[in-house]
Amino acid sequence: MGQAIDRPHPTPRDYVLIAVILFAITAAEVGVTYVDALDSARAPLLLTMSAAKFVIVVGWYMHLRFDRPVYRNLFLIGLILTPILFGAVLLSFGLLIGN
Amino acid sequence: MAVSMDHTEHAGHPDMSNVRKVAMWAFLGSECLFFGTLISTFLLYHNTTGDGPTAKEIFSVPFTSVSSFVLLMSSLTMVLAHHAAGRKDWRRMRVWLLATAGLGLVFLSGQAYEFTSFVHEGLTVTTSPFGSAFFVLTGFHGGHVAIGVIMLLATTLMSFTGRLRDGEGMNVELVGLYWHFVDIVWIVIFTVVYLLQV
């Protein structure tokens, strides 16, 4: 199954620091929606910040950074299949509309 | 994908905690597909509002931001509960588990309030494809949060009967994985369904 990755595990202090970072990113996300000057860059900025929060929670709170690779691989299968499924749905709808 | 046994496991006696953890990660991987489908459907229909209200007209970003903050903080209390369980500090673990369940209930209350106000403003599950996609997606997520709260309370009760001791602390880890997953799904919903639509 593979061994756990040998990295020092986070302490409660690290977890609180991560929560502060998550809070700051969320505040930045909300801020971006109110700044008109960022209208054109809003979508990529929001998606990037959302992805950062996703990775932080999965990596540190769910311990995927420190756990056995098999867990990460199982989760990645789902994550990789999701956009493929989304593409298939969009393509199907496009074909239906085209007909 | 073959699941080989750990070096600490003996033939015929696999480490059940590892097996359950593999099963949980496989389940979470499949849940990615489940929510991915619902989010895809929402993105396909988000502009199909018919005569009903649009996202811009009814969504309240400040209110949903507070809900998101509550759910993020519940992830912190959950990971602290897991940490306490690892140290066999059962009293502190119960405090953090109950705090997590409480924050989950606050989130659910906020969602109930939001749904009620949307219905009053004319958006129901049958108003438009946008309404259907929105309520089904966020409703299923709320259902997952509710199941998580029940799991947290059940784990807290189990800790009083001593069933979490002697290596069965994995239960807290599995509940934690499920709870954090519910949180990451909300991270995506908050951005894609709320922030990108207003």
Structure notes:
The complex is a heterodimer of chains A (99) and B (198). With 99 residues, chain A is an all-alpha fold. In chain A, 74% of the residues lie in helices and 0% in strands. Chain A has three helices and no strands. Chain A is flat and about 50 Å long. The N and C termini of chain A lie far apart (48 Å). By secondary structure, chain B is an all-alpha fold. Helix content of chain B is 75%, strand content 0%. Chain B has helices spanning 16-45, 55-58, 61-86, 90-120, 129-160, 170-195. In chain B, α1 packs parallel to α6 and α3 packs antiparallel against α4 (90-120). The interface between A and B is large, with 42 and 50 residues.
Major protein interface = A-B, 42 and 50 residues
**Beta-strand segment tally of chain B:** 0
Q: Please state the CA-atom Rg of chain A, rounded to the nearest Å.
A: 18 Å
Rg of chain B, nearest Å? 19 Å
Overall mean pLDDT score of chain A?
Answer: 87
Globular, elongated, flat, extended or rod-shaped: what is the shape of chain B? elongated
Overall pLDDT of chain B: 89
Q: Could you give a short account of the major beta sheet of chain A?
A: none
Poorly predicted spans of chain B: 1-13
Q: Helicity of chain A, in percent?
A: over 70%
Helix content of chain B: over 70%
Beta-strand percent range of chain B: under 5%
